[in-house]
Predict the structure.
Amino acid sequence: MKQPDDQPSKAALAMSVGAVLTANILGGLGLGYAADRWGGTAPWGIIVGIILGTTSAFISLYRIMQKLQ
């Protein structure tokens, strides 16, 4: 019988890519929106939030791709 690994399977990592990208970008958007509402800086909080969320998404994507190799 094969022992389960501590590492997630490559298929599970590959399927998580969409969720990670979406969560990071929407998280940045949400934080940017909240910053705009709190600070009255519209639309700059949303713009910065989207940029930071997208950057975070690509960093996370890079880390996932490193695990797949």
